[in-house]
Amino acid sequence: MKIGLYFGTYNPIHVGHLIIANHMAEFADLDQIWMVVTPHNPLKKKSTLLDDQQRLQMVYLATEDYTKIKPSDIEFKLPQPSYTIITLAHLKEKYPTHEFSLIMGEDNLKTLHKWRNYEVILENHDIYVYPRISDEPENVELKSHPKIHVIDAPIVEISSTFIRNSIKEGKNIQPLLPPKVWEYIDHNNFYKK
To answer: Three-state SS string across the chain, please?
Structure first.
């Protein structure tokens, strides 16, 4: 089975994440998409994150109607901060018959060379890249690598930061969130302070 791993803090998960995950599930040669909830991205401040279980619950709520998209808490059980190379090694050991690929935005591809053991990741795993609007120069060498597959997916410019800030400002951002996620956030008064 070919699994696309779509990593994120999902703080919160929004319709942009679902559009991309569903596009990869339907239009790339992947059998399933696992939305891997990252407990602590080494590049993000931990203090801004909701509790791991609350973010995982939002991913469950957002994906329960999608048969090819699954939430994953695999990184909750691994040492922190999470490094993709360690997660991939753990998954390969746990699911030896699965083939794991990464899903990332074009912006992340530009910094891939800064990832721990990125050469090993590239050697052993396909990477599916969706377009992002960015002013940074492209990494042409990486983009033409045989393991890199640039997918003509919709460009979605919604960010979790924008959603959190908008909720804090009392704005109605309901259309940007799956309905059950909106209800969960509203019920628990998340991001209001």
So the answer is: CEEEEEEECCCCCCHHHHHHHHHHHHHCCCCEEEEEECCCCCCCCHHHCCCHHHHHHHHHHHHCCCCCEEEECHHHHCCCCCCHHHHHHHHHHHCCCCEEEEEEEHHHHCCHHHCCCHHHHHHHCCEEEECCCCCCCCCHHHHCCCCEEECCCCCCCCCHHHHHHHHHCCCCCHHHCCHHHHHHHHHCCCCCC
